[in-house]
Amino acid sequence: MEKDSYQDALDRTTKEVNEKVPQEKEIWRATQHKDFSRNICFFMWMIIHGGYKVGNPWKDIEGHDHKAGVTESMDHILTRCDATGQSLVWDLASELWQLKTGKDLRPTLSEISVCGAMLKGDKGTSRLFRIVVSESAYLIWKLRNERLDCVLTNKLRYGKKALEKKLVEQTWKKVLQNEDRLPKELTRETGVLVGIG
What we know:
Elements: H1 3-18, H2 24-30, H3 38-49, H4 74-79, H5 86-101, H6 109-113, H7 123-147, H8 155-158, H9 165-172
């Protein structure tokens, strides 16, 4: 997404909730909110700057199966993709949010991106919103990347940077759902790896 159009979407989202359009510096400052860990700050900054490799860079990678049949975008990964387990993560986040507010929680990419600047009731509720939304989005992103672990064993593509197949198999042994039904060579599978059965 172009920076200007993305900035407009962020402005609209924040205005809908906060009833004012934030200045651009407020949006950027919100990515570094004190309620965010260093990893979350970096993650939020990268989302807003379009810094993650999603979509077209992956279309020609051998072994990368586009499970959803669409070109990946950060919006798709964090809010719509079935392969990443995002639906389960948002279901659990929504259950927690409903305990606090009685409302459902299904944030858009814009809401995720500006969660550090959004006001949701009192200070405690706003803080919970920032933490739940940012951590949930980050978890979905990490789950998506674990799915790619198998793809990264391709020595032709990644050369010296390729992961050893044995290391990937040792990493995921005893933590996968239906492990007994997985193929002998796990690294040929590119589905979602994580899940305790």
